[in-house]
Amino acid sequence: MLGLTLLTDPRWANIAEDNLEEILTDHAWCEQKAASNAISLITNNPEHTDLVHELTAIAIEEMQHFQLVIDIIKQRGYTLGRERKDDYVNQLMKFSKKDGSRNTAFIDRLLFAAMIEARSCERFRVLSQHIRDKELAKFYYDLMVSEANHYTTFLNFARKYTIDVDVEKRWREWLAFENELIQSYGTKEQIHG
Ligand SMILES: [Fe+2]
Ligand SMILES: [Fe+2]
């Protein structure tokens, strides 16, 4: 699925469902961070007009996702907690190339975003298929579709704007790294936990 070589154990969905307030809080902040990431890509690359426009749409959509999640939190009588540390994303950030040319860092930032969209999409799929709550299952199904589109957008921009990066080769490195990394996860009530 989306190039991911290791899929999440469905039992993770039960851990998530048994800790709904926690997973919803973590999820809300994932959406906020996705919006922030799109905004910083816009800020750092204003000369790419189509990227500016498409990522503006994504940033808005991510904040709409944030709004949907905080609405669910409220409807169910929960409270949005503070932002959770996302160890998985921090590890991906460490893997990304920040030195080298401006283009190298830019392309890797796009691949970093594509990677997170791919895994988030896969996690939403697991939730949509395995949680008992029908309303939430439908909600996660819709988000899965949306994040799959974001994944495609980021990957296609990497292909379009590369100057000195072999995107297909670098993307395979990202997938291989993620495949190793994700083996330590899948047991916690976090979207990437
Ligand atoms: Fe989202
Ligand atoms: Fe997204």
UniProtKB/TrEMBL annotation:
InterPro entries in the record: Ferritin-like, Ferritin-like_SF, tRNA-Hydrxlase_MiaE
Pfam family name, one: MiaE
PANTHER family attached to this UniProt entry: TRNA 2-(METHYLSULFANYL)-N(6)-ISOPENTENYLADENOSINE(37) HYDROXYLASE (PTHR42637:SF1), TRNA-(MS[2]IO[6]A)-HYDROXYLASE (PTHR42637)
Name under which the protein is recorded: tRNA-(Ms[2]io[6]A)-hydroxylase
Organism classification: Bacteria, Pseudomonadati, Bacteroidota, Sphingobacteriia, Sphingobacteriales
